[in-house]
Amino acid sequence: xxxxxxxxxxxxxxxxxxxxxxxxxxxxxxxxxxxxxxxxxxxxxxxxxxxxxxxxxxxxxxxxxxxxxxxxxxxxxxxxxxxxxxxxxxxxxxxxxxxxxxxxxxxxxxxxxxxxxxxxxxxxxxxxxxxxxxxxxxxxxxxxxxxxxxxxxxxxxxxxxxxxxxxxxxxxxxxxxxxxxxxxxxxxxxxxxxxxxxxxxxxxxxxxxxxxxxxxxxxxxxxxxxxxxxxxxxxxxxxxxxxxxxxxxxxxxxxxxxxxxxxxxxxxxxxxxxxxxxxxxxxxxxxxxxxxxxxxxxxxxxxxxxxxxxxxxxxxxxxxxxxxxxxxxxxxxxxxxxxxxxxxxxxxxxxxxxxxxxxxxxxxxxxxxxxxxxxxxxxxxxxxxxxxxxxxxxxxxxxxxxxxxxxxxxxxxxxxxxxxxxxxxxxxxxxxxxxxxxxxxxxxxxx
Length: 447
What we know:
Elements: H1 3-15, H2 20-39, E1 45-50, E2 55-65, E3 74-76, H3 77-83, E4 92-96, H4 102-131, E5 137-145, E6 150-153, E7 158-161, E8 177-188, E9 191-197, H5 201-211, H6 213-216, E10 220-228, E11 232-239, H7 246-251, H8 256-264, E12 269-274, H9 279-286, E13 294-297, E14 303-308, H10 313-317, H11 322-331, E15 334-339, H12 340-346, H13 350-356, H14 368-371, H15 377-384, H16 392-402, H17 408-446
Parallel strand pairs: 2-3, 11-12, 14-15
Antiparallel strand pairs: 1-2, 2-4, 5-6, 5-8, 6-7, 8-9, 10-11, 13-14
Helix pairs in contact: 2-4, 5-8, 9-11
Function: Participates in both transcription termination and antitermination.
Organism: Aerococcus viridans
Subunit structure: Monomer. Binds directly to the core enzyme of the DNA-dependent RNA polymerase and to nascent RNA.
């Protein structure tokens, strides 16, 4: 091994950042394999490289044993004592077996190892550089496009736009500049692979950060994005400064800021809406440009019924349901849109009563009667002792509550029943009073 090769190792360390020790370690391992392959030797060998002299030596490593079974791997204790009386059973002894022409093999092997290490180092450097761009946008140049993939040059590496990352019907010209969102970077056996996207919602977010300084510095915040790439998107924004209008800031003077984003996405329509922590307000804003009269939330669900004017129904739903679909995605709510007339009819249906009825929650530890824990007359008397009595009709009414039979008609019927009972009680008292008066008059006459 020449000293020129050593200087080459040092140059690699300076230029590629590859440690000389790493190269030498890999070289020694490769030389062991080359020795066994070229000299058909099965012994346990080591290769030592003297970095100062540039000399390579090959050693066969043998174990000291009483009885030699394999001369390539073992040496007798007697032969070991001929070398040094200090050797004992189980010790390892190195015997130099360097072939005379091993320098040629070593040079070829060193060249291969150096080239391999250089490729690995370059891949590692590239991977470490582009992994930092994950979840960010880069500007690339379109190299080519086939039936499935678009290939974009990002400088040191060629990125791929897979089918799911492409905007429907978007085409490119060779050498066209395009902005892409770096979705993930993978370190494969063939080197680092960068997967980018044009349809990811985060591309839209990064473009707004690029075009709107107030978003970049955090004054205005993007709270949610709903996107149907290439067609239409909705972006919910809020200002952290009371003096700054979030929507107007994103739109820009005469729409200049948002227009640059629309142009980059080749005409994708953009709705910028005001975010609110009040969900009813947020849903109303999300259905822009339609006017919303009221929002009715289904108890216990992330769904609601939105009422709009008759002449805004188609506007709220949108073409092929797109406006409603994007609003639902933006607010993470299932939205059912109805006109005033349709909603008035809807509230008379059983479906409305079932979906919007208040849930009656029973604490079983507090009320064993409603909980259904009373199984005998004795238990009932023990529970109700000292309390107001409950007749059979009251229990039946409780059964209705448990079965969920609660609605306007049921409540009116119960009110009518109560009023009827009160009237009956009053009538009975009046009758009793009249009988007492008659009896008093007869006694007075007899007296």
